[in-house]
C-alpha cells in the first residue's frame, strides 16, 4: 500500500487493516516482519543539534512549538539529518496545560515552572477541558510534516523495499502530567503528587474494566463510555461519578485525584485525536516519571486512567507506544494498559525487559543516551548488544532509553543509525 493518496483520509478500519503498510517503523510497532530494525531517537530534535540551536537563537521553545512552520521544519531537519525511520513532532509535554488554564513557562536552567500548582479539589474542578481546539497548531505542524514525507523513500539495497517514514505524535500520560501540575515543575520525591493520590483513599473506586493480566483487545470499548463518548465519564474506568457518596476517605480532597485523571484523559484524548486526524501514524505516551511509583500505587492510582487513554487512542486506528524511565519493575503492570509498544530504559537488559512482558508487545529502546559520548568501539559494542538481544524477533524498534542530552556529538548519533541499518544477526 502507498500512503501517498490515502494517508490523511484513512478510516480507523483501514488504519487497523493496512496501517503497517510500507512503513517499517509502523510495521515493527505492530510486530509485523520488517527488512531491518527501524531506528529513531527520543529528543532527536534538541539542543545537541546545531540546526536546532540556530532556530532557538531567534525563537523561544514555546514559540517554536506554537508556530507550525517552524515546528515542522525542526522536526523534518532532525529526521533528515539523522536519516532515521521516524519523525517525532516537535512539541512539548506541557502544551495542554494552557487550554486547561494552567500557566507555565520554561526558565533557562530550571526547566518548566508552573506558577500556581494544582493541589486542591477546587483547583481541579476549575481546570478547563473544553478548549482542546486551541492546541490545533500541533496538528497543523503534523500536516506539514506529513506533506513533506508523503513520498516513500527508495529501497536501501537491491532486495530492500521502499519505506514510508513514520510520523509520531505524542502526549503525556495522566500521571506524569499530573506530577508537573501538582509539583509545579520537575520533582525528586513527588510528595505533593503522592499526597493528592493517597488522599483519594483505598482505591476500590478505581476498579479496572478488564481482568487483571488480560490486556484489552484493540478498539475494545470501555465500560460506560467508548472512544467517542464525550466528555469522558468517570465510569470509563470504573470510578464513581461526581457527587457519589461512595468514598473510602473523608478528606475534602478525596475526589481531586480521580477528577484530575478524568480531566487529563478527556483533554489528551482530544489532543491525540487532532494529531491522528492530521496524519500521525503512531502516538507515543510519555509517562517519563512513572518509575517513581511502586507497583501498588501505579496499579491503584494510574493504571486505569492510562488504560482508558490507550484504548481511546487505539480506537482511532493507530498503534500506541508507552514510555517511562526506571520502569523495570513496572513493566508487566504497564503492559496491562494494552499498549502496542513499550519503551524500555537502559537499566534493564533489552531481553530481560521484553521477557518480563511475555513478548506480548513490541519494545522500543534501549541504549543509555550517555553512551553516545563513548569512543566508537564502546558505542558500537553497546548497539550490537541491544540488537543481538532482540534476536531478530519481530517488534523491536531501536532507540535510546531516554532522550539525547545537550552536548551529544551529532556524528555519534549518525554512526548509531548506520550501525543499526547495517547490522546482521550472525
Ligand atoms: O525530538 C524531540 O523529541 C523533541 C520534542 C520534545 C520536546 N519535549 C521538546 C523540548 C519532546 C518529545 C518533549 C517531551 C517532554 N517534555 C517530556 C517527555 C520526554 C522525556 O524526556 O521524558 C518532558 C518530561 C517534557 C517537559 C520538559 N520540556 C522538560 C522537563 C524540559 C526541560 C529539559 C531540560 O533539559 O532543560 C523541557 C524543555 C524542552 N522540550 C526542550 C526541548 C528540545 C529543551 C529546552 C529548549 O530547547 O529550550
Question: Secondary-structure blueprint of this entry?
Answer:
Elements: H1 12-18, H2 24-29, H3 50-58, H4 61-66, H5 68-82, E1 86-88, H6 97-100, E2 104-107, E3 111-114, H7 121-126, H8 136-148, E4 166-172, H9 174-183, H10 191-199, H11 256-277, E5 282-286, H12 295-314, E6 320-323, H13 331-335, E7 341-343, H14 350-356, E8 362-367, H15 376-390, E9 396-400, H16 410-422
Bound molecules: coproporphyrinogen III (CP3).
Can I get a quick summary?
This protein has 426 residues and is of the alpha/beta class.
- Hetero groups bound? coproporphyrinogen III
Mean pLDDT: 88
Kindly state the number of beta strands: 9
Spatial shape: globular
Helical coverage, percent range? 25-40%
Widest sheet: strand ordering: 1-4-5-6-7-8-9
Sheet having the most strands: 7 strands, parallel
Low-confidence stretches: 1-8, 204-248
Distance between the termini: 31 Å
Order of helices and strands: HHHHHEHEEHHEHHHEHEHEHEHEH
The helix-and-strand class reads alpha/beta
Radius of gyration: 21 Å
Strand content: 5-15%
Number of helices: 16
Amino acid at each position: 500500500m502507498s500512503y501517498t493518496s490515502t494517508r490523511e483520509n484513512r478510516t480507523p478500519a483501514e488504519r487497523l487493516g493496512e496501517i503497517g503498510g510500507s512503513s517499517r517503523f509502523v510495521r515493527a510497532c505492530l510486530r509485523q516482519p520488517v527488512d531491518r530494525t527501524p531506528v529513531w531517537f527520543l529528543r532527536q530534535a534538541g539542543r545537541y543539534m546545531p540546526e536546532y540551536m540556530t532556530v532557538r537563537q531567534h525563537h523561544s521553545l514555546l514559540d517554536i512549538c506554537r508556530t507550525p512552520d517552524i515546528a515542522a521544519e525542526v522536526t523534518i531537519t532532525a529526521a533528515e539529518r539523522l536519516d532515521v525511520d521516524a519523525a517525532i513532532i516537535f512539541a512539548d509535554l506541557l502544551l495542554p496545560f494552557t487550554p486547561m488554564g494552567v500557566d507555565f513557562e520554561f526558565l533557562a536552567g530550571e526547566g518548566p515552572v508552573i506558577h500556581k500548582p494544582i493541589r486542591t479539589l477546587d483547583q481541579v474542578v476549575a481546570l478547563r477541558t473544553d478548549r482542546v481546539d486551541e492546541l490545533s497548531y500541533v496538528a497543523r505542524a503534523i500536516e506539514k510534516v506529513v506533506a513533506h514525507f508523503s513520498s516513500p523513500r527508495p529501497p536501501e539495497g537491491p532486495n530492500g523495499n521502499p519505506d514510508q517514514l513514520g510520523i509520531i505524535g505524542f502526549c503525556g500520560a495522566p500521571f506524569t502530567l499530573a506530577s508537573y501540575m501538582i509539583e509545579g515543575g520537575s520533582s525528586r520525591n513527588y510528595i505533593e503528587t503522592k499526597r493528592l493520590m493517597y488522599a483519594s483513599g483505598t482505591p476500590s473506586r478505581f476498579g479496572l474494566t478488564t481482568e487483571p493480566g488480560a490486556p484489552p483487545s484493540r478498539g475494545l470499548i470501555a465500560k460506560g463510555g467508548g472512544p467517542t463518548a464525550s466528555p469522558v465519564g468517570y465510569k470509563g474506568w470504573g470510578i464513581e461519578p461526581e457527587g457519589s457518596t461512595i468514598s473510602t476517605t473523608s478528606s475534602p480532597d478525596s475526589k481531586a485525584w480521580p477528577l484530575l485523571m478524568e480531566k487529563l484523559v478527556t483533554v489528551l484524548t482530544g489532543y491525540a485525536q487532532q494529531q491522528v486526524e492530521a496524519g500521525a501514524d503512531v502516538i507515543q505516551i510519555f509517562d517519563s516519571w512513572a518509575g517513581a511509583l511502586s507497583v501498588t500505587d501505579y496499579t491503584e492510582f494510574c493504571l486505569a486512567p492510562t488504560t482508558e487513554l490507550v484504548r481511546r487512542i487505539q480506537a482511532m486506528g493507530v498503534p500506541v507506544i508507552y514510555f517511562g524511565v526506571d520502569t523495570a519493575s513496572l513493566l508487566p503492570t504497564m503492559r496491562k494498559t494494552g499498549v502496542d509498544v513499550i519503551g524500555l530504559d537502559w537499566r534493564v537488559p533489552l531481553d530481560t525487559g521484553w521477557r518480563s512482558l511475555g513478548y506480548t508487545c513490541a519494545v522500543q529502546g534501549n541504549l543509555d543516551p550517555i553512551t553516545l559520548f563513548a569512543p566508537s568501539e564502546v558505542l558500537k559494542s553497546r548497539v550490537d548488544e541491544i540488537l543481538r538481544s532482540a534476536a531478530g524477533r519481530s517488534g523491536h524498534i531501536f532507540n535510546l532509553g531516554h532522550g539525547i542530552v545537550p552536548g551529544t556529538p551529532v556524528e555519534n548519533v549518525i554512526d548509531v543509525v548506520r550501525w543499526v541499518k547495517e547490522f546482521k544477526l550472525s
